[in-house]
Design a protein that fits this description.
heterodimer, A: 308 residues, alpha+beta, 4-stranded antiparallel sheet, 11 helices, 8% strand, elongated, B: 224 residues, alpha/beta, 10 strands, 33% helix, globular
């Protein structure tokens, strides 16, 4: 009897265990898939928000435009800074007038002279905020440095906590699927303890003993990821808009753009194709994760029975 | 050739399970290992197939010290030594054919299964029960299946641990005759037993063990 036949026989032998184990795997893998989509979008949203807060550098009247533009060029050389925008006195006046055009009282006797020229600095990552602040505070002709401290601190907290929650949740789900595989294959192995012992005594190699259980684990991974693929095909069209709605106002990455970033240019693709690509990718990832869990789970389960 | 050189194995309490055994078994020999229950017969055989390891001494099979074997070398050793157990150790969920085929499967000789299995079952007189399950067989028949499994992959040595211990006298003679036939083909037999009738009838080399020690080793002998 070859190993694949034995693996299939093991699955058929105890149908209720096989079905309940598959159900647990499907549920955990499906949760992992949906959470991964959410985590993926969250990652981009947090990255976007991390780059949103700005440091406003206001210059004294002594600072010439050339001096300010030199400072801008110097700042842009740092990889901690993603963008620096120069606002001249005239531009500041324009913005003020534009913002208060409905309130003529505030526009009376206003001239460009009362507005300081400024640089708006955006960091590549919120963790660089303090470094940037300390580097610009010592500059000459700087009247004041302004930034939204509360927002920055809150964002830092959200960013680090969301990483911890994400890693913990994924680890928990992976542990659950690993334990499920370990227990299910462990049960099969325990019921075939005598068979393993006899095989070893008549000269079976460890690989000969392990192979059917390994294949059994891989079959679990294959069947469960296939079912998860079908479930995602049915549910993704409903779940994706909900996730996108959750992140309203944040420019989320498009699948076509992500593919382009790894060198695959599909041009303009429809939302349906976009979902299909995401679905295929998720199913593939789940399958790979399932295979890895199956291999580690079955090897762990069979290890102690090989010492004959 | 199998050699036991100053082999000792101690229990955890410090008593000897096997006490300074020196024994040489040549190719083609038929050797009875006799002695009362608990004398150390089974321990000696377990040492030979590396199911257990000695506390000291060397066990050589065809010149190779098996204590130095890495775990991946043990399957090859066990394929060189066929083993028959007192409790048959058959797989209840497999047919007679499959039980015998397993030793060819593990030896990587799958393509020989359909030719070899019916032949060895014919040798042990069970060709007509090829599709039976162990639960449908009598004790002597089960032992003959176990014997067929042990010889299917053509081992150089055949080790039997009380193979007639669980079967009736008529079946015992059938099994013993098969052992004799296998030995005639050139396979060395190491037959552990405390069955005086069998030992006396065959008049082969008899190694007597008591308290883990060899106390007698005689050729063409009887159970004394």
């Amino acid at each position: 009897m070859n190993s694949l036949k034995r693996a299939v026989k093991n699955l058929i032998l105890d149908k209720s265990v096989t079905l309940s184990s598959l159900l647990v795997l499907v549920l955990t893998f499906f949760s992992i898939a949906i959470f991964s989509v959410f985590a993926f979008y969250s990652h981009f949203a947090i990255k976007y928000l991390e780059q949103s807060p700005q440091i406003f550098l206001y210059f004294t009247d002594k600072a010439s435009e050339q001096y300010i533009l030199d400072v801008k060029d110097k700042l842009l050389k740092s990889d901690k800074i993603s963008m620096v925008t120069y606002t001249s006195k005239d531009k500041a006046l324009e913005s003020y007038i534009d913002a208060n055009k409905d309130n003529p009282l505030l526009l009376e006797s206003i001239s460009a002279n009362i507005f300081p020229a400024s640089l708006d600095i955006k960091a590549t990552n919120i963790s660089y905020f303090d470094d940037i602040l300390s580097s610009v505070k010592g500059l000459e002709n700087v009247e004041s440095v302004d930034f939204q401290k509360v927002v920055v601190d809150k964002l830092k907290e959200i960013s680090s906590k969301s990483k911890i929650v994400g890693i913990s949740l994924i680890s928990l789900l992976l542990t659950m699927s690993f334990l499920n595989t370990l227990l299910t294959i462990g049960m099969t192995i325990r019921s075939q303890k005598k068979e393993i012992e006899i095989m070893k005594l008549v000269g079976a190699t460890d690989w000969f003993v392990i192979k059917p259980y390994l294949l059994q684990g891989i079959l679990y991974a294959f069947v469960s990821s296939f079912i998860v693929g079908i479930l995602l095909f049915i549910t993704l069209p409903f779940i994706l808009p909900q996730i996108e709605a959750f992140f309203t106002g944040v420019p989320l990455p498009q699948v076509a753009d992500l593919l382009k970033s790894i060198g695959i240019n599909l041009g303009q693709i429809s939302p349906a194709i976009e979902q299909l690509i995401m679905l295929s990718f998720l199913t593939f990832i789940i399958f790979v994760v399932g295979i890895v869990i199956a291999i580690i789970g079955s090897l762990t389960a069979v290890a102690k029975y090989l010492r004959v | 050739m199998i050699e036991f050189i100053n082999v000792e194995r101690k229990f955890k309490q410090g008593d000897f399970e096997i006490d300074n055994i020196n024994l040489v078994i040549n190719e083609g020999e038929f050797v009875f290992i006799v002695g009362p229950s608990g004398a150390g017969k089974t321990s000696l055989l377990k040492l030979l197939i590396r199911e257990e390891v000695p506390t000291s001494g060397e066990i050589k099979v065809d010149g190779e010290n098996i204590q130095k074997f890495k775990s991946k070398q043990i399957p090859a050793l066990r394929r060189k030594i066929g083993m028959v157990f007192q409790d048959f150790r058959l797989l209840d969920t497999r047919t007679v054919f499959d039980n015998v085929a397993i030793s060819l499967e593990v030896a990587g000789k799958k393509e020989e299964i359909n030719e070899v299995v019916p032949r060895v079952l014919e040798l042990v007189g069970l060709k007509d029960k090829i599709n039976h399950y162990p639960s449908q067989l009598a004790g002597g028949e089960k032992q003959r299946v176990s014997l067929a499994r042990a010889i299917a992959h053509d081992p150089k040595y055949l080790v039997a641990d009380e193979p007639t211990g669980n079967i009736d006298p008529k079946a015992t003679w059938e099994v013993v005759k098969i052992f004799q036939k296998i030995n005639d083909f050139g396979t060395s037999i190491i037959f552990a037993t405390h069955d005086k009738v069998v030992v006396d009838a065959l008049k082969k080399r008899v190694v007597t063990i008591d308290n883990g020690k060899i106390i007698k080793d005689k050729i063409n002998s009887t159970y004394e």
